[in-house]
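Standup notes
- HV: blocked on the assembly model, inputs below
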Amino acid sequence: MTSYILKRIGSALITLLVVAATTFFLMNAVPGSPFVTEKSTPEMVARAEAKYGLDKPLAVQFYNYVKGYFVGDMGVSLKMQQDTSVAEIIFHQNKFVLSSRIGAYALLLAVVLGVPFGCIAAYNRGNWLDGVLRVVTTIGVAIPGFVVATSLLVLFGVQLQWLPVRSGSLETASAYILPVFALSFYPSCYIAKLTRASMLDAINQDYIRTARAKGLKTGKVIFKHALRNSLIPVITYLGPLTAYVITGGFVVETTFSIPGLGKYFISSILNRDYPIIMGTTIVLAALIIIMNLLVDIAYKLVDPRISLSKGDE
Amino acid sequence: MEKRAMKFNLFHANVDEILAANEFSSADFESASKLDKESMVEQHKSVSYWKDAARRFKNNTVSMVALAVAILLTIFAFAGPYMIPYSYDEQYRGSMKLAPFEYSDSEKLAQKALTDADAVFSTALMQGSMTSLKKGDYAFAYHGTWYSFTMTKTLRSGFLMYKAGEADPLYTVKEDDFIAGGNYEKTAVSYTAIDGKPSDPGVTVIKLSESVFPHVFGTDSSGRDIMSRTMYGARVSLLVGVIASLIVLVIGSIYGAISGLLGGKVDFVMMRFVELIYSVPDVLIVLLLQVVLQTPLQNWFDSSTVPFVRALSSLGVGIVSIFITFALLYWVSMARIIRGQVLMLKKQEYVTAATVLGASNSRIIRKHLLPNSIGQLVVTTCLEIPSAIFLESFLSFLGLGISAPMSSLGSMCSDAIDTITVYPYRLLFPAIILSLLVLSLNLVGDGMRDALDPRLKK
């Protein structure tokens, strides 16, 4: 087990390094300097490049980045908030807090909605309730997230006017409702589908028949035996779910005008502010990779059969 | 139990006894006629794989409805633009911010003019910057016949009207006269019927309209027809979906087949590479890629004279960079599926037989492995189409995919957000079309999976 965890951590670090290298070389592949504007003179560009070390060879620049990250130095912004440290921009300007709050609530809501609805669908298999849930979840996993977000905005923000159209910095509780619900719609439908399928799978297992034969109550059979085992696919989904919540957050922040990290990331790409692109990519990628790592480890802990069957491949 | 089984021995069965027990006599049987035999043969006729799949697909109501919707949307996207007189990038003067089926003032005047004439041409409805008919030679077609005429005086804010059967069938009228109402002053223009469309470049071809087509979905803030833009957006989505999934199919199946077939160390290295791409958070890289590819692609398009590149450049940088993204990052799951299939099929006896007979690797791939995994290939490719559409619209929504003047359903939705409190319907149409498109293609894909690969059915 320890060797498995170490191996997994090793591969996670390699992935992160690959992400960093890809990002670095991709953003440097754009021809021309980020400092070139309509008014800039070649001397101004050269001075700015020298100031931020962009005149050094790419390999040296990349080495400096990696070295900096190891001691917690993420560099300073080139253009968007000139000379402000990237760590300051990401972590201390409310951007990360806003994005992660919406993300965390959405993640929680997705599980809280998805699992019970999946159980209800499985328990009512074949009747109208299952049918309704099946239609909703099929639509929910198929249509793009921004369609959901913008539709909710039109319905509750513009037509009914129950909730604010622009959520801004999320100062009121009602500002949270639409972004969080929009972001959690796809994953809750997906989790409901997953739970339904694995519940149905579990219900047909021998140990459920045994539990019933022993005379256990239906509730106990479902919660103690069936649900526990059918949650494994849901746990595995938590990794991709984190990735979805982060990228879906870009859309939700754009739709509801929330000044979060996702929105800032997009504009940093368009502005070619290299240290911010690097910083944001690495922070977000690290979140996703760490979540995947935790899920993999949890998966092994929860289901010992997996380590037995896969062995030391 | 064992003893009874021992007693019942097939070879010692007494036929008479059995017949008597079943109460059959020889009179109960009659020999089959030729016709009967034929019908027996017909009943057991072998059904081909595709026919069998088609039958299963037809029995699936949801998939059939989804297929019908997908076909309708395809017609909407590809035939629709030829049926409406508006183009996706033209900014129609005076037609800004119209609600669905609303007419602009100029269009209302044109409609009014049509009550007196058979066909009109209104300078106020002209596209782009041309607001007047300058002096010069013009031609127009009416009911299949071409006519040419010469303007001796510039016509500013006015109508060119045509009414068959009058002494002066073609005449110009000032717009102001129309607005004032009552009688208007007609200025006759003489014209001549000509043979076919004039080829002289000095002649401007204009189009008289016999009715004013409504802006069914309304227009946007710069006077572009939303219906036409939605059609082109759906066309872009379908093109991106189909071509991107074909790219994924080609790269993924070649990579997967090679990896699975060669096995050993090659397979190990190739699969570690796949795993690496798999574990990288794709969207973060994709966003960056869109910006990175922009300039080099544009330069390549501008400088190249190769016909293939010219064709690509007509698609636009945004679409091509999405193709490249798929070619770089999204083939991995296809490669994994194909590798799995190959590994499974590799152990089959007929592949061993082919190897023993000295067949080359490429022959084994072409003749044995691909035909046997065709079902999986088709299903995975079909399901890749909606996800490619998904990614394209996501990127365009964030402003990183397809950019104006080319229309995309995603960018139309994001444009609509700026004015959402005033014009919510601008969001409605692209969002509905996009959702229907992705939903129907997903359901068709699911139906294909159930039909082509019944083993996978839940």
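- HV (later): unblocked. Strands of chain B lie at 119-122, 132-133, 136-142, 145-151, 155-156, 158-162, 170-174, 187-188, 191-194, 203-205. Residues 3 and 412 of chain B are 81 Å apart (CA to CA).
- Next: hand off to the docking folks.
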